[in-house]
Write a structure and sequence with these properties.
Elements: H1 9-19, H2 27-35, H3 50-68, H4 72-84, E1 91-93, E2 100-102, H5 110-129, E3 134-136, E4 145-147, H6 160-176
Antiparallel strand pairs: 1-2, 3-4
Helix pairs in contact: 1-3, 1-5, 3-4, 3-5
The structure holds zinc ion (2 copies).
Length: 177
């Protein structure tokens, strides 16, 4: 699970966290962790305390804030806020068969490991590929965060579904007019 490129697993983890429904209590958030436990060192506690769930919700909101920022200065500011919450401790691993770096501290809590992984992940994404790479879906009833992997950075929707739904709606609106 590495950090390279815009479709890297660490970027996916950040997007999944930003789009997870943190208003749901307990079970759903613990399920999110269990589904991403490849990022956590063995024997990490996956059942969070209420205060830890709230903390994870804050981190999710901070990723969303980076995606929502409309200029480079704001992206820098919000990324630095997120990095300030992280506790990087780079280490080399071959847990999935290939040599690569992990940034989270071994044997720290799940929230600490996830926070550091997503903070470093989206920082490397933005510094390597530009501050406009993260966005929020333009469909009227969708607020999902996405990563723009298109060459000329023209993406406006989180998915093909939202994109076609929006073009159908625009077509109907034009017909009505
Ligand atoms: Zn890994
Ligand atoms: Zn969408």
């Amino acid at each position: 699970m590495d950090y390279e490129g815009y479709t890297s697993p660490s970027t996916e983890l950040a997007i999944d966290l930003a789009n997870a429904d943190m208003s749901q209590q307990g079970a759903a958030i613990d399920a999110f962790l269990a589904a991403h436990d490849e990022w956590l060192t063995p024997r990490t506690r996956l059942t969070l305390r209420p205060v830890e769930r709230a903390e994870l919700g804050t981190v999710a909101a901070m990723i969303r804030a980076v995606a929502a920022a409309e200029d480079e200065e704001t992206v820098i500011e919000r990324l630095n806020d997120l990095l300030a919450k992280s506790t990087p401790h780079p280490r080399v691993t071959n847990h999935d068969g290939g040599l690569h770096v992990h940034y989270s501290r071994d044997r720290s809590t799940a929230v600490e490991q996830i926070t550091t992984t997503v903070a470093v992940g989206i920082t490397l994404l933005v510094t390597a590929h530009g501050w406009t790479r993260l966005g929020i879906c333009s469909a009227t009833d969708c607020q999902d965060v996405y990563v723009d992997t298109s060459r000329n950075q023209t993406r406006r929707f989180c998915s093909g579904t939202c994109s076609s739904r929006s073009s159908v709606a625009a077509f109907r609106a034009r017909q009505k007019a």
